[in-house]
Design brief:
6-stranded parallel beta sheet; 8 helices; binds farnesyl diphosphate; alpha/beta
C-alpha cells in the first residue's frame, strides 16, 4: 500500500507520476561482497537477504505494484552443495521469519519458477507464505526460484501447443503472455542488475522487451534504499518511446 505522499516522493527526488509499476532486480554480487570483507560466501548471502527488507519496504511504501526478485536461477544448481544448503537455509529463514511483517504490510507473495525441484522444507516455507498472503492487496512480491526465462518460454509454448491441438485455434499474443509466470502482472518497466555485470542471465527475457535496464557497480548487499531511489530517478529521466517517435 502506498504510504509515501507525493510531497515525500518529490523530496526524495522522485516524480510521483512517473513511478515504475513493475521493477525486477538481479541481486548479484553477494560472493564478491563477502570476498571484499574477507568473509565466507555464506555471510555475503546473509548480507544480501538483509538488504531485502529495505527494498521491499520502499517498493511497497512508494506504491510500486510489483517487484520481481531473482533469488535462484535454473543455472544456480551448478553451485557446490554446501552453498546450495546455505541458500536453502536462508530461504526458509526468510520466508518463515518475515512473513508476519510482509502480511501486515499487505504484501502478496508469489514464487515464480519450478518449485518442485526444491527440498520439501523450502517448498513448504514458500507455499505457506503464498497461501497466507494470497488475498493481500499491496505490493505483489514475486520471488524467482528455480526460474529461467528459456524454460518459462518453453513451458508456455508446450502448454499452448497442447491447447491448440485440442481446440484447433492458434494462440494469440495475449494467450502467450497468460501462459508465462508473470501473467496478470503489469508490464516490466525497470530491470536492475547490481555488481557491474551487464547481462540478463536468462531473466525475464520476454518481459524485458521494453523495460529500461539499469546496471550499477554496487554489490547487492550494498544496494541501499538510496541506491534504489537513484535507479528509479534514472528510470524517470529516460525517454521511453516504445518504438514510436516523440
Ligand atoms: C548472486 O550473488 C546472488 C544469488 C545467486 C542469490 C541471491 C539470493 C539472495 C540475495 C538471498 C535469497 C533470497 C531470498 C528471497 C530470501 P553471487 O553469489 O552470484 O555473487 P558473486 O557473483 O559475487 O559470486
Amino acid at each position: 500500500m502506498k504510504k509515501l505522499s507525493d510531497e515525500r516522493l518529490l523530496e526524495l527526488g522522485l516524480n510521483p507520476k512517473l513511478m515504475p509499476a513493475h521493477v525486477a532486480i538481479i541481486m548479484d554480487g553477494n560472493g564478491r561482497w563477502a570476498k571484499k570483507h574477507g568473509a565466507l560466501r555464506s555471510i555475503g548471502h546473509r548480507a544480501g537477504v538483509n538488504r531485502l527488507r529495505e527494498i521491499i519496504r520502499f517498493s511497497s511504501d512508494a506504491g510500486i505494484s510489483a517487484l520481481t526478485l531473482y533469488a535462484f536461477s535454473t543455472e544456480n544448481w551448478k553451485r557446490p552443495d554446501s552453498e546450495l544448503a546455505v541458500l536453502f537455509g536462508l530461504l526458509i529463514e526468510y520466508f518463515n521469519g518475515e512473513i508476519d511483517e510482509l502480511d501486515e504490510n499487505e504484501v502478496c507473495i508469489r514464487a515464480i519458477g519450478e518449485l518442485s525441484a526444491f527440498p520439501d522444507e523450502v517448498r513448504s516455507a514458500v507455499e505457506n507464505a503464498e497461501a497466507r498472503t494470497r488475498r493481500n492487496k499491496g505490493l505483489k512480491l514475486n520471488i524467482a526460484l528455480n526460474y529461467g526465462a528459456q524454460l518459462e518460454i518453453l513451458r508456455a509454448v508446450r502448454a499452448l501447443c497442447k491447447s491448440a491441438i485440442e481446440s484447433g485455434e492458434l494462440p494469440t499474443q495475449a494467450d502467450f503472455e497468460n501462459a508465462l509466470y508473470t501473467a496478470g502482472l503489469p508490464e516490466l518497466d525497470l530491470l536492475i542488475r547490481t555488481s557491474g555485470e551487464m547481462r540478463l542471465s536468462n531473466y525475464l527475457l520476454y518481459q524485458a522487451a521494453y523495460a529500461e535496464l539499469y546496471f550499477t557497480e554496487v554489490l547487492w548487499p550494498d544496494f541501499t534504499k538510496s541506491e534504489y531511489i537513484r535507479a528509479i530517478a534514472e528510470f524517470q529521466r529516460r525517454n521511453r518511446r516504445f518504438g514510436g517517435v516523440e
